[in-house]
């Protein structure tokens, strides 16, 4: 499995101005095709968002995989 986040550093990805979460995800999937195997929820700056959410330069984006529990 690809780990894009490590405790001591984040993953930085420059995006064009007025880019969206979905555009970022599409770019990541191009670089890491194994990301296609899951459906994700998205969060920007610790708030759940839709894929159409526009991003700013300093935003932190999280791809949250499905989890199970009970």
Which features characterize this protein?
70 residues, alpha+beta, 16% strand, globular
Kindly describe this structure.
The chain is built from 1 helix and 3 strands; from the N terminus they run αβββ. With 70 residues, it is an alpha+beta fold. The chain has a 3-stranded antiparallel β-sheet, with no helix packed on it. A hairpin with a 2-residue loop joins strand 1 (41-44) and strand 2. The longest helix is centred in the middle third of the chain and has 11 residues, at 21-31.
Helical stretch count? 1
Structural class: alpha+beta
What is the beta-strand fraction? Answer: 15-25%
If strands are numbered along the chain, what order do they take across the biggest sheet?
2-1-3
List how many beta strands DSSP finds. 3
Biggest β-sheet strands, sense, barrel: 3 strands, antiparallel
Oligomer: single chain
String of helices and strands: HEEE
Rg (C-alpha, Å): 12 Å
Instruction: State the helical fraction.
Output: 10-25%
| Average pLDDT for all residues | 81
**Kindly, what is the distance between the CA atoms of the first and last residues, rounded to a whole number of angstroms?**
25 Å
> Which segments are poorly predicted (pLDDT under 50) over 5 or more consecutive residues?
none
The shape, in one word, is globular
Layout of strands and helices, then pairs:
Elements (H helix, E strand, L loop, with lengths): L20 H11 L9 E4 L2 E3 L11 E4 L6
Antiparallel strand pairs: 1-2, 1-3
């Amino acid at each position: 499995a690809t780990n894009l986040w490590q405790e001591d550093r984040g993953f930085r990805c420059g995006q064009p101005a007025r880019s969206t979460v979905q555009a970022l995800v599409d770019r990541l999937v191009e670089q890491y095709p194994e990301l296609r195997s899951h459906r994700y929820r998205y969060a920007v700056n610790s708030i759940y968002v839709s894929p159409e959410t526009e991003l700013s330069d300093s935003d932190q984006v999280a791809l949250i995989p499905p989890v199970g529990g009970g």
